[in-house]
Amino acid sequence: MEQSLVILKPDTLQRGLAGQVLSRFENKGLKIVGMKLTRLTRELAEKHYSEHRAKEFFEDVVGYITSGPVILMVLEGPSAITVIRQMLGPTDGRKAPAGTIRGDFGIATRYNLVHASDSPEAALREIALFFRADELLCYDRDVNKWIWQV
Ligand SMILES: Nc1ncnc2c1ncn2[C@@H]1O[C@H](COP(=O)(O)OP(=O)(O)OP(=O)(O)O)[C@@H](O)[C@H]1O
Ligand SMILES: [Mg+2]
Question: Model-level pTM greater than 0.90?
Fold first, then answer.
């Protein structure tokens, strides 16, 4: 089973959209195995976005991701990495199709609501950056037991 590191970025929390975004992941059938509310330090943000260090938007994106609280999550499911990236849509909300998170909630390139790992290598690196092994929980998500048992 695949795991992906997902960040609800500061605009999602500032706009009060965390619940709606999380609902989409839950409805899709992805399992939350790790979650924390935090504010990223500059050091962690620079590490997370290190692949973009030389780009002209690096300072802006580090400023954005450290500007307020974020929710860090590890989501698990079959092909979770690809599935979640498809649910996000392209980086630019103006180009993201309706039905995607960025397409439905955003209209900017920088303020695009959610980050998700884009490869298995990135997922391993990013999960290790934000979570200790004992912060990831292993459990069954048994819908029948919790919803159907009266
Ligand atoms: N041209 C740009 N101008 C301003 N901000 C940008 C630009 N390109 C990317 N960003 C910001 O930097 C982040 C990282 O860019 P990247 O190319 O990795 O996009 P992404 O993989 O779709 O997004 P993320 O890595 O956050 O999931 C983007 O999500 C966005 O917030
Ligand atoms: Mg990226």
Answer: yes
